[in-house]
């Protein structure tokens, strides 16, 4: 950026050009691009390279350097044209202003004077890490206490758009962290401490009776699979949006997972949730679940699940997670028998009930009573904190 | 190094010589890899030819291609180095009676002769820079990504028994990702980025002509247009470039000269492109005929 020193080859761009380039980098950062000091220096090298003879060449080169996801490619071209060629300047400036207003979390420099300082900066030694990391960390720390408060509150009590979005974002992060810890645990166990003496001695023959390569016995592990059944009926209304976001994150994070929605009928929605972009995933999900409404038939839906899907989606290391308030309009006997069948098939059944977290709650719904004997875990799920408490349980599977 | 001065058109020309048709953006990115000494991250759908880029790059530079396939659970010992334990134990045994001191034996068995190089170490220990292909990096765990990032930034490895091993040459690193998992910002920032899309009609035709030189140019254009239109249909698995090549070879083998004249053969041979039952069912004879009408 500012007065950086450049590699000896060639003279490097002149001071005016360097200033322009620093301005461009600031523009890009404001638009949400992640750019470190090292990248800015390399951009200066590009300007003094043969590639800069033609604007298209320079644009393509800088795009490869600065853009780092598919979604950023078109955006980069717009910003480049606006900044260096004065085309469509108005629209690009608008984007810029919007990004500033939104204060996107990936922004490095929250300080409005940062651009000024960057120009005055004289030492290069800090490198990209020195520039990027602390600012990023700082951004996260700032939000921590607010997030903590949100994670304890009942999801149904979060009313504002912003609060709900924040909770959903936290749920996503939980799901991702959960998966990282679960895989790590699995690996530590996988190392297999038990020596397989028989194999070791058999192999030692080749080395003249010296047990050179020790053979270990390890348990074959299949990855944990999560099958989630989410109640989307009217009585769950205030929780559905939150849990679909949670399910989306879980589906993204776990290598093996399946998701279903139910109220009066069952819908297999895994394919919609595999869509990476949350907004598009929810759109597709809304399409797939269209037409459902009315009461809840948990028992009937579980029977359909047992008959149509269970064989395919359940294996030895499967955890079935049912998220429902337990208000069933069907006969409780039906639910009980469906639960019995399900119990025989899978390793663990977890029932998350968002109402449980409320003070003075008794699982008195008839459906809930019928299902209780077949559950491994009956847990509250009204807040993020209660979801986080689940993780150690899942890790033991 | 002289190749750092080669402008992008020259790189594109060299790639074409070895049978890879690169568009201008890709050629630019490949030129920058050399100029800035940065790794290149290529993303794109399965079948667009991401791995081919690395192979072609190695062929164009006439250097070795070292490939590392990533998978879940990949760790440093299978990516970087491992000691040859069997040989070490044998060496200890052989010296048991020789009266050599423990430290002498130790120096002996922790020397290079007993080191098994895995792809990453291999890549930095070559006299001439090879092309290192880190394939499907999104399949490896997050921890491995961090480890890789460290290696890619200073190209130095520390082996505890051995000390730091500096790179003899900096490899050209190509990473590919199918986007099954979001990669970290740090890795993305470190790398140049190129999104490889399915080739447009002209480029696909050029690829076909390059690979199967005997074909008629008009016929090749028809094939490329047909595949291009198929990709726009709502398919479960979109056919890749390799599938197009298969299909073209099939049609040429059946001596088809003009797609429009042989709708039945075209429909029957679509199995080279459509690889799921649903896709096969969704492209009916009528759909094939409709698409062929636009092939001209």
Could you explain how this protein is built, in words?
The complex is a heterodimer of chains A (397) and B (296). Chain A is an alpha/beta fold and 397 residues long. Chain A has 3 domains: 15-141, no CATH class; 193-221, no CATH class; 225-395, von Willebrand factor, type A domain (Rossmann fold, 3-Layer(aba) Sandwich). Chain A is built from 17 helices and 8 strands. Chain A has a 6-stranded mixed sheet, sandwiched between helices. A two-stranded antiparallel sheet of chain A has the order 1-2. The longest helix of chain A has 30 residues, at 161-190. Chain A is flat, with a radius of gyration of 28 Å. The two termini of chain A are 52 Å apart. Mean pLDDT of chain A is 70; it is low at 1-10, 91-145 and 185-191. Chain B has 296 residues and is α/β, with parallel strands linked by helices. Chain B folds into 2 domains: 2-71 and 124-158 and 165-195, P-loop containing nucleotide triphosphate hydrolases (Rossmann fold); 201-293. Helix content of chain B is 49%, strand content 13%. Chain B has helices at 8-17, 24-36, 50-61, 76-79, 85-95, 102-109, 119-124, 142-154, 185-190, 201-211, 217-232, 241-253, 263-269, 277-282, 285-293, and strands at residues 40-43, 65-69, 81-83, 115-117, 131-135, 156-159, 163-166, 172-177, 192-195. In chain B, strands 2-5-8-1-9 form a 5-stranded parallel sheet. In chain B, 33% of the residues are buried.
């Amino acid at each position: 950026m500012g007065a950086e020193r450049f590699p000896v080859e060639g003279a490097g761009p002149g001071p005016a050009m360097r200033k322009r380039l620093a301005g461009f980098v600031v523009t890009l950062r404001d638009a949400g691009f992640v750019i470190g000091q090292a990248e800015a220096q390399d951009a200066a090298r590009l300007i003094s390279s043969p590639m800069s003879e033609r604007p298209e060449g320079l644009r393509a080169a800088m795009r490869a350097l600065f853009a780092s996801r598919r979604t950023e490619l078109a955006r980069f071209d717009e910003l480049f044209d606006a900044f260096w060629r004065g085309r469509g300047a108005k629209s690009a400036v608008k984007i810029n202003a919007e990004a500033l207003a939104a204060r996107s979390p990936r922004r490095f420099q929250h300080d409005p004077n940062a651009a000024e300082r960057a120009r005055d900066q004289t030492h290069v030694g800090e490198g990209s890490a020195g520039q990027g990391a602390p600012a990023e960390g700082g951004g996260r720390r700032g939000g921590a206490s607010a997030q903590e408060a949100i994670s304890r509150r009942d999801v149904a009590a979060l009313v504002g758009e912003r609060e709900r979005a924040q909770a959903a974002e936290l749920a996503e992060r939980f799901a991702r962290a959960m998966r990282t810890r679960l895989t790590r645990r699995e690996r530590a166990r996988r190392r297999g401490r038990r020596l397989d003496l028989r194999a070791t001695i058999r192999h030692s023959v080749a080395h003249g009776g010296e047990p050179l390569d020790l053979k270990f016995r390890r348990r074959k592990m299949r990855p944990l699979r999560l099958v989630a059944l989410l109640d989307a009926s009217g009585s769950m209304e205030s929780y559905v949006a939150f849990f679909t976001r949670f399910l989306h994150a879980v589906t993204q994070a776990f290598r093996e997972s399946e998701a279903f929605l139910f109220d009066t009928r069952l819908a297999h929605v895994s394919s919609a949730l595999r869509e990476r972009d949350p907004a598009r995933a929810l759109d597709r999900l809304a399409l797939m679940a269209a037409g459902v409404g009315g009461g809840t038939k948990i028992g009937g839906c579980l029977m359909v699940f047992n008959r149509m899907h269970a064989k395919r989606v359940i294996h030895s290391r499967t955890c079935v997670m049912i998220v429902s308030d337990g208000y069933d309009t069907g006969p409780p006997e039906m639910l009980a028998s469906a639960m019995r069948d399900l119990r025989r098939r899978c390793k663990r059944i977890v029932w998350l009930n968002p109402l449980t977290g409320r003070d003075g709650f008794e699982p008195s719904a008839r459906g809930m009573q019928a299902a209780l004997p077949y559950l491994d875990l009956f847990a509250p799920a009204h807040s993020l904190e209660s979801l986080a408490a689940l993780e150690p349980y899942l890790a033991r599977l | 190094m002289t190749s750092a001065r080669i402008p992008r058109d020259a790189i594109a020309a060299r790639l074409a010589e070895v049978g890879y048709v690169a568009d201008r953006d890709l050629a630019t990115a490949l030129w920058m890899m050399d100029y800035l000494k940065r790794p290149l991250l290529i993303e794109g759908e399965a079948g667009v030819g991401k791995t081919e880029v690395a192979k072609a790059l190695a062929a164009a530079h006439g250097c070795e291609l070292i490939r590392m396939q990533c998978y879940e659970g990949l760790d440093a010992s299978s990516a970087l180095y491992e000691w040859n334990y069997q040989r070490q134990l044998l060496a200890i045994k052989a010296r048991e009676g020789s009266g050599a001191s423990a430290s002498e034996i130790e120096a002996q068995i922790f020397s290079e002769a007993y080191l098994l190089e895995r792809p990453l170490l291999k890549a930095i220990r070559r006299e001439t820079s090879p092309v290192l292909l880190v394939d499907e990096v999104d399949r490896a765990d997050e921890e491995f990504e961090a480890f890789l990032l460290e290696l890619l930034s200073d190209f130095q490895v520390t082996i505890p028994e051995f000390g730091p091993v500096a790179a003899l040459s900096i490899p050209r690193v190509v990473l590919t990702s199918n986007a099954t998992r979001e990669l970290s910002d740090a890795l993305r920032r470190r790398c140049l980025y190129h999104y490889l899309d399915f080739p447009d009609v002209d480029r696909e035709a050029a690829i076909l002509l390059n690979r199967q030189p005997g074909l008629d140019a008009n016929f090749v254009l028809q094939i490329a247009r047909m595949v291009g239109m198929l990709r726009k249909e709502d398919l479960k698995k979109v056919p890749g470039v390799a599938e197009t090549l298969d299909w073209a070879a099939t049609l040429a083998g059946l001596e088809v000269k003009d797609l429009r004249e042989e709708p039945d053969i075209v429909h029957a041979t679509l199995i080279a492109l459509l690889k799921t039952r649903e896709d096969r069912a969704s492209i009916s004879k009528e759909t094939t005929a409709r698409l062929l009408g636009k092939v001209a």
